C-alpha cells in the first residue's frame, strides 16, 4: 500500500499508515496496524501461522479484547485488505483476476462496460477473447482476437502519425 491512500471499510474511512507493509483498522478507539504478511499475497485470505501469531500478540497487548472483538478485528482487516486490492486494481486487472478465479461472467461484464468507453483498446479486446474461450465461445473469442489485432494496427498507425 502506498502512503496517503485511504481505505474505506464498514467502520468508515481509515487512513493508511506511512509504512507500506501494514494496513490500518479501527476497533472502537483502538487503531491496529495489521501487517500485510498475515494475508496470502494480494488476497483477503489469512496465512497461517502468521495470522494466529498476530492475533495472539493483540490479545497479549490488549487483554480486554474478547473473542468476539478479535473476530471483528479479523473481519475489519479482511475488509480493509479487500478495499486495498480494489484501490490498486484497474478495471481490466480486476477482470483478469476474475477470469483467473474462474468467474468469466463477471469478468466479461467488466470488460464489456470498459469497451463501451474504449472500443479500440487492443488489450481489452484480447482479454475479451480469452474470456470468450473460457466460457466455451470459440467463434466469439476468435472474433475478439481479430478485433484486437485490428485495434493494435490502428493504434500503431495513430501513434506514428503524431
Structure overview:
The protein is of the alpha+beta class. 59% of the residues lie in helices and 12% in strands. The longest helix is centred in the last third of the chain and has 24 residues, at 138-161. It is elongated and about 65 Å long. Residues 1-17 have low confidence and may be disordered.
In short:
The protein is 59% helix and 12% strand. By secondary structure, the chain is an alpha+beta fold.
Topology (elements, then pairings):
Layout: E1 6-9, E2 12-15, E3 22-27, E4 30-35, H1 50-61, H2 67-88, H3 91-100, H4 104-117, H5 122-134, H6 138-161
Antiparallel strand pairs: 1-2, 3-4
Helix pairs in contact: 3-4, 3-5, 4-5, 5-6
List keywords for this structure.
single chain; 162 residues; alpha+beta; Serine Threonine Protein Phosphatase 5, Tetratricopeptide repeat; two-stranded antiparallel ribbon; 6 helices; 59% helix; 12% strand
Amino acid at each position: 500500500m502506498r502512503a496517503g491512500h485511504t481505505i474505506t471499510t464498514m467502520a468508515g474511512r481509515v487512513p493508511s499508515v506511512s509504512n507500506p507493509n501494514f494496513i490500518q483498522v479501527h476497533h472502537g478507539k483502538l487503531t491496529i496496524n495489521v501487517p500485510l504478511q498475515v494475508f496470502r499475497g494480494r488476497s483477503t485470505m489469512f496465512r497461517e501461522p502468521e495470522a494466529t501469531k498476530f492475533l495472539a500478540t493483540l490479545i497479549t497487548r490488549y487483554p480486554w479484547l474478547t473473542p468476539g472483538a478479535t473476530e471483528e478485528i479479523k473481519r475489519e482487516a479482511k475488509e480493509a485488505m479487500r478495499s486495498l486490492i480494489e484501490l490498486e486494481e484497474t478495471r481490466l486487472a480486476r477482470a483478469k483476476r476474475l477470469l483467473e478465479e474462474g468467474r468469466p461472467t463477471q469478468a466479461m461484464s467488466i470488460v464489456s462496460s470498459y469497451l463501451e468507453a474504449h472500443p479500440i483498446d487492443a488489450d481489452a479486446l484480447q482479454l475479451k477473447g480469452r474470456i470468450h474461450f473460457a466460457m466455451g465461445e470459440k467463434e466469439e473469442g476468435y472474433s475478439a482476437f481479430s478485433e484486437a489485432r485490428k485495434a493494435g494496427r490502428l493504434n500503431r498507425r495513430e501513434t506514428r502519425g503524431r
